[in-house]
Amino acid sequence: MKKYKAVVNGLGNIGREAIAAIEVSGDFECVGVIRRKQSIGKNKNDLRGIDEYTDISDIINKHGKVDVCLQGTPSRNAKEDNIFYLEKGINTVDSFDVHGEIASMVESLDPIAKKNNVVAITSSGWDPGTDSILRTLFEAMIPMGTTFTNFGRGLSMGHSVVARSIEGVSDAFSITIPLGGGKHSRLVYVVLESNANFDDVCKRIKKDDYFAHDSLDVREVKNSTELSRLVDSSHGVLMERTGASGLTSNQILKFDMRINNPALTSQVMLSSARAALRMQAGCYTLIDIPPVYFLEGERLDNIARLV
Length: 307
Known about the structure:
alpha/beta, Dihydrodipicolinate Reductase, domain 2, 2 domains, four-stranded mixed β-sheet, 14 strands
């Protein structure tokens, strides 16, 4: 059976799990991992035997046409990274998680994808991503009502990346704590760079748009070894919607899950890569895609099995 050729851009939390998801799939193979020059040769075990490169051209020269790139780089690099691969005729999937900028991301990438006859699927994870699909279905079932999405308690990869980028921070990770009613607080553990002032670092974190809208608790940790003892990749969500279907009120829907964050995000990205190869050129989010497109196998077989 012919397998689609995928590359993974980056070897962080997402990149590592994307390689594993591809490994156990039946219809994809990972033909290379793109890394920064200074990272080549490091964390060899995370590659699971996959070759690493600094240039996509080297992968194409060795393996031929690449079908899709799974982006494992930070959300703030997503637009630039996607454009780079789309313009090379490679479909892209990312887990861009800045909710307020998703619509503009679609608007920006859509004409580029169409021009190059490829597909970009953005914000493909579990939130935004599969939770977005559930919110859509919940609203279709209960058109008049309120949905609360409560995240956590667990590791937020996006917030952790941003915290590590703050001036004066050597290492950090961020935990999301649900407060109920769709509100959350952020608990951030930081290892400071030498001579950095803790109060100044706290102010910089709070000022960043990722953290500015929620209550924030920043705690200093002595070093990365101590920090590693606190890190936990678990996460979860409780989604609740109440309202009316037609003239009938008191309809209640709930969805609850507890997961490993990077593992689930990467699995959804791979499923979205499969969907991308079945879509017309353009940029999409998960609510634009027929659910059957995410699944391995033939459409009618999956209809017979699931419907």
